[in-house]
Amino acid sequence: MSDEHPPQPKAFPVSWDQFHRDARALAWRLSGQGEWEAIVCITRGGLVPAAIVARELGIRVIETVGVASYHEYKEQGSLVVLKGVDPKITALGGGEGKGVLIIDDLVDTGSTARIVREMLPKAHFATVYAKPKGRPLVDTFITEVSQDTWIYFPWDMGLTFQPPISKGTLG
Ligand SMILES: O=P(O)(O)OC[C@H]1O[C@H](OP(=O)(O)OP(=O)(O)O)[C@H](O)[C@@H]1O
Ligand SMILES: O=c1[nH]c(=O)c2nc[nH]c2[nH]1
Ligand SMILES: [Mg+2]
Question: What is this structure's pTM?
Fold first, then answer.
């Protein structure tokens, strides 16, 4: 989390099973919307849904775009493009990424989506989850959560012991 993503009061933990179901639902929704020549996934969070969507839709041309955010690189709040899109992909469908599917795990403030959309203005942008601020930047998504919710993805979590309710802090 960062200045742009302050600690969120609500938690939305997602299991592998749930994520697979939601990513597959995204593939179903996309399947009715045209033929896709290639996927551009936004690393790293977009890698997992991109694999699932590519499998479901039979897409084998898969490119990455690397955008790192916030405190990890350079000054806080800025986004850094670590890897751009291959010009061969940008040129598809007569240019500007027509027929390309951009995939990410979620859109939050929309900053990442805005940068990648500028690279491929005619591409279709799809995410599994969306928060209200970023929603206008996404063409297709599956589940919306409120802006004050933090989504916990399965690749960021592990199994931990849970104390019995009777020994917990509640009540
Ligand atoms: O809409 P925004 O406010 O830009 O936030 C959404 C982005 O933030 C997360 O990626 P992050 O940059 O944390 O890197 P990661 O994918 O490598 O985890 C997420 O995977 C999206 O790409
Ligand atoms: O794991 C994450 N959960 C989120 O809700 C989020 N928003 C931006 N980046 C995020 N990463
Ligand atoms: Mg990301």
Answer: 0.92
